[in-house]
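Feature request disguised as a bug report, sorry. It would help if multi-protein outputs had a clear separator. Right now it looks like this:
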Amino acid sequence: MRILEPRMLQYLHRKAGRDKIPLSGTFELSPCCNMDCRMCYVRKTREEVEAQGGEIPMESWLEIAEECRKAGMLFLLLTGGEPFLYKGFRELYMELSKMGFLISINTNGTMITEETVNWLRQVPPIRVNMTLYGAENETYRRLCRNPNGFDQTVHAAKLLKEAGISVKFNASMTPYNIEDLEGIYEIAEDLNIYVQAAAYMFPPMRRDESLSGQGDRFSPEEAARYQVKIDKLRLTMDEFKKRAETMKANHLEDLAEEEEWERDMREPLGCRAGKSAFWINWKGEMSACGIMPYPITYPFRDGFVDAWQMLVEKTRELYMPPACVKCRRRKVCHVCGASAYTETGTFGKVPQYVCEMTEHLIRFTEEELAVQIQSSSEGLQLQ
């Protein structure tokens, strides 16, 4: 099962991006979490939060939400930390729903009970994005320091499905849970839930700005190898073959002279961040992307409209690394502003980790395609 973004949504974001309308927003309600995942970039204890001024009260979130609504926001993601730990989350969710937002929730799922589902089903979110960290409790103990996390998460997913609430699994693959990759996909298939897995982990610069280019994660070669494994699980054989052939035939050729000239121009950040989307963290700082700690503006202090306009202007001044713009691997590589910044500490330098991962990804994909072709050929001969 695959989920493709509806064309209407793509159209809305393109139009909003041209007109600089904040169509999509994220409210990061709290950095507190009942788990302690090794690679997390946001988690703080309740004591650390209180020492930094505490969480933003519900009334303030509702006021800023009304300003966002008037400015054009339609899609709202509620996240954390663990958003269900936010004091008054149920009341906040209900009031935000009354404003007409299409709300999604990011959660680890471990706090969702029958009671939670009963009130959620009254005004269902458009989707609950639930992270599935492994295929057994032992993996949750090792990675998330929660020995019962697997049972809690799967139970929550079943409750939501039975209530008719849309669920999606996210899977962040690390050295601590990679052995569970096939099991995660098997569980998702049994529950008929789409799963999106990733082998690349951003450096946790939001937790500590000195950690650029670091992280409790795979080497570039390992990340590429496991990403190919993920691609094999999520794609049909024909889709994988098409992906591999497209890499080789269309995206890896040397650039024509005129294309080289065009690519010599500065390239702005290519995603929706700071064009039609924004993120407000638990401290009230607004950024273009939740991964990046820069640039930031202050909507609670300056008003949302002014803060959004300042964010748009600051984002407009950011560009991809020049070497990335001219690289012949550009259409294969998944480099973005967030990866450039978190890998190097700036937007102007090439993120070498991503470069190395891309080179290995191309090679491993081609090798896997050759294996699949050989296996198909041998199968035909046996027939």
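(second protein starts here, but nothing in the output says so)
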Amino acid sequence: MSESHSPQLIDLLIVRGTVITVDPERRVIEDGAIAVDGDRILAVGLTADLQKRYLGRKIIDAHRKAVLPGLIDSHAHAGHGLLKSLGGGNPGAWMDACRVVYTTGSDEEFWYAEAKLAALERLKFGTTTGVCLFGGGDSIMRVDDPKYAARHTAAISETGTRSFLAVGPSRPPGPRLYADWMGSDRIDKMVSFEQMYETCEDIARQQHGLAQGRVNICITLPVFQPEHDPDQVQYTQLFKDQATQYSELARRHNLAFTQDGHRSGTLKLAHEQLGLLSDKAFMSHSIDLTDQDIAACVETGTKIIHNPSAIMSIRGRCPVPELIDAGVTVALGSDGTAPDRSYDMFRHMFQCMHYHRRHFRDAAVLPHGKVLEMVTIDAARAIGLSHEIGSLEAGKKADIILVDLFKPHLMPLNMPVYRITSFASGADVCTTIVDGKVLMEDGKVTTVDETEVMELAQAATDRMLDRAGLHHLLASPPKLWRSSHY
């Protein structure tokens, strides 16, 4: 007689779902199940098979739901969440507002409230991992004092999502004016590049790996593009010195490296003159790339982050199909939630497909599965975590989302990958799990009080507008109606 075995008791068993694994075989398992114990996936397979092997302390019935890896947003900006729509569609006014707010108009609670709002939005949209540049990215970084980053990462830790915070110096010239706030008192200070470097090292040393490894730090630098901005030629030596310093900082702390705003010729320059490209680098936007730019990525293993909904993608095109065909890993980013976007990665998948279809006049460019890879396994490769997240496989972290497919706009119940990429939105995510912890179930967030987070964000925004003197940017532009141009 054969010996019978009792099922293994585990923390979580998800059953009866349409499991879109994005594993090496790209399996889509109908009536599928996932076994989770602690923060890891134990097994992925058919419901009948896993129910024989495992008994869950908690069971989630995923009938008529898609079960996917948590989505990954590979490029965004901290702070943007409280600056949505400022300037009424005028990108120049909005960028000017960012520069003021991030240097002299923000306090610690601004960065805490914004990070908590961003993490909540991502959580509800099924984005379990996000990259945030700490400020305006290519022009401004809030790296005058490590206390601001500490409040940002505290908010992420409390919410339960996974995050990379990118820190680096602001763009020259320097020193740069920043301000601290003590109540209503503003305390101005001039911050040198040497002080910014010390702050970045403090942040890397103190905050990388917090929250059981969910909070990570990476290094960034402004993009050097002298052919587009002659005024930057005088900063060539400074950029070379910073490239050496910050590359060494990244190596010393084993950190990834990223940059915001690459365009024609700048990747080649960053590789040949600054030595910034490597298999631990992921570079954002990357519009109108030359053949030499693409070759530099192939040679070094550098990854590219495409932001199809961003202003940069209006000014030029990231050659995504060409990069993929050349063997370069390409992931998607939201570019943050301002001035006119969101953390809904379903929205950016859809935008990505249509953006490149229009360019090539070819509806078959960028298949649906490829675009889903760009927010899951390819994105995990880009940020250096493909061994941990990005697919549903035994041994990986249990970052899992459920999407409710039983809705009018997602019917009929067939071809699930196509329904996810073409018809679903972040609002269809009903359950979000990170590190095996259920952060949202049936649309109810369990880690934070949503109303409290939104009230906190509104209060921080009101204080910021008062301090920065930016209330006038809330007015509607004169050509909002009855005109084709602003």
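Even a blank line would do. Unrelated, but nice: DSSP finds 16 helices and 19 strands in the chain.
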